[in-house]
Each structure stands twice: as C-alpha cells, then as structure tokens.
Automatic annotation (TrEMBL):
GO terms for cellular component: BLOC-1 complex. Belongs to the BLOC1S3 family. Pfam families: BLOC1S3. Residues 1-79 are annotated as: Disordered. This is Biogenesis of lysosome-related organelles complex 1 subunit 3. InterPro entries: BLOC-1_complex_su-3. It comes from the Eukaryota. It comes from Chloebia gouldiae (Gouldian finch). Residues 43-56 have a biased composition (Acidic residues).
Length: 162
C-alpha cells in the first residue's frame, strides 16, 4: 500500500480553517518571502486592507460607457449575436406565419364545407316545406269535397240500402 500523502497548499490559497496546519509547498525547503503579495490572496492585517483601499482610490476611474445601441460600442456593423438573433427571429416569424396560414386555411376549408352542407340543408328544408304546403292544400280540397258530399241532400241515401 502507498503511504498517505500530506495535503498540499496551493500558493495564494488560504487555509480552510484555523485548525488546519499550513504546509509549505515543495520549494526546495525555502520559506516564502515575507510581505510577498499573491494576487487574489486575502489580506491578513488591517494595514494591508487600508493600503489596498488607498491604492484603489488613487487609481483613475473610467466613467461607465452608456450607449443606446451595442453597435456604437463594438463598431459600426452588427455583432454576430445580433445577426444570429435576426436570423432566428426571421425563422420564427416564418414558422409562426406558416402555422397560422395552415390553421386558418384548414379552418376556411372546414367552414366552406359546412357552408355547402348548410346550403344544401336549407334547399332541402325549403323543398320539404313546399311539399307540405301542397299536401295541406290538397287535403283541404279533399276535406271541402267531403263536406259538400255529406251536406248535399240531392244524392240518394245509400246508407240504408247496405
């Protein structure tokens, strides 16, 4: 079995807890120079913090760049992202337009079929109504004829002879 290796400390990395012993990286036995600043290393004293704050205050600050259009910041032409967004928007518009045309077209065809069926039903209903009017007229004529025959006393009484 291999012997357990002690953990290594990466330069510039703080220990995770106070109980964790700080180990020197294998640098040939030399201790790191005192006062050496490692970028990203947390300051250990308040003096270092104050020095860092003073350095930040002395550095000239650049004003933030505010622009309406990203093209004003990055150059005259549209960026690759803008081109891709335009292409994607165009494809999306085309797909939505196609879907709407297809759905509206199928709805229009369905309505056209329903309109034809309704027209045929109306014609059939009108024809049936006309036939019913003719039948009623004929039935009234027959009823009138029967009334005349039954009311007439000129005809011989055939009821008694049967």
């Amino acid at each position: 079995m291999a012997a357990a290796r002690p953990p290594r400390v990466v330069p510039g990395e703080a220990s995770e807890s106070d109980s964790e012993p700080e180990l020197l990286v294998e640098t040939g036995g030399e201790a790191p120079a005192a006062g050496l600043k490692v970028p990203g290393e947390a300051s250990e004293t308040e003096d270092e913090e104050e020095e860092e704050e003073e350095e930040e205050q002395q550095r000239p600050k650049t004003p933030p760049v505010l622009a309406e259009e990203p093209a004003a910041v990055w150059g005259s032409g549209p960026s690759l992202l803008q081109q891709r967004l335009r292409e994607g928007t165009g494809r999306l518009r085309g797909a939505v337009g196609s879907a709407l045309r297809q759905s509206y077209g199928s709805a229009a065809r369905s309505l056209g079929g329903l309109e034809g069926a309704l027209g045929r039903a109306q014609v059939t209903a009108a024809a049936a109504a006309h036939c019913l009017r003719l039948a009623r007229r004929d039935l009234r004529a027959v009823a009138d004829t029967i009334d005349i025959v039954t009311a007439c006393h000129l005809l011989p009484d055939i009821r008694g002879q049967l």
